[in-house]
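job 3f2a | input accepted
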Amino acid sequence: MTQPAQQQDVPGTEQEMGPKPDCGEKSYVGHDRLRDKVAVITGGDSGIGRAVAIAYAREGADVVLSYLDEDEDAKETAALVEDAGRTCVLISGDLSDPAHCRKIVKTTVDHFGRVDVLVSNAAFQMTHDSLEEVPDDEWDYTFATNVSAFFHLAKASVPHMRPGASIIGSSSVNSDMPSPTLAPYAATKAAIANFCASLAQMYGERGIRVNSVAPGPVWTPLIPATMPAEKVKEFGSDVPLGRPAQPVELAPVYVLLASDDGSYISGARIAVTGGRPIL
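job 3f2a | predicted structure (279 res):
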């Protein structure tokens, strides 16, 4: 399976993608597994974040969506959450700023009084053929957005979490099988998996579960915004299932980890890779 060669400016939007990703807008059916929980989702405007937001809302959760500046995508996602009868709070801004991370959590607590689920999902990547091509500030920004933001969000959220709360980091198959052309991004995804494993041990006695999800190739705006057009065309064709995932195919794992059905799952890294094994 291939998709047309295409490119966008960073951060990319679903509006300009062809075909448009399936985030479960028409297909995801909830079963009340997250009734009245409060979830913070970063990168919630599109892609995996949108799919998780739709699923969480249809499972009964209120949602706070953080995004950079993709206003149209974010408004679409918010409308889908509200169509499910749940509250959606939108917060735009740059997660590489620690103060903005703390603002997201403060806004959530001001609205709802607590945080039940934190999904640290937003990420930045760029493709480079050599280390010499990676600008110093891009390396720093990749780590600030993907790893440091997770630290600041988790640190601010934990005091407002009760037993049964859940923290979920979006890792990647790159945490185990790093692509050389995505070296900075791959390093951050390994750090996320490792950080989640540490937090699971740190907060287990408080009843807070921490896990990471390791997706393989997923058709999201990040792909045409950060990869050459020809690589976009073949994206996902090298996994055993022969295609990239649609974001909706990731959502059930995030629901499981946030719900009471996953009450004994902590410290795990769950692979959703289309058949590519991780260790």
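job 3f2a | Residues 136-157 form the longest helix (22 residues).
job 3f2a | closed
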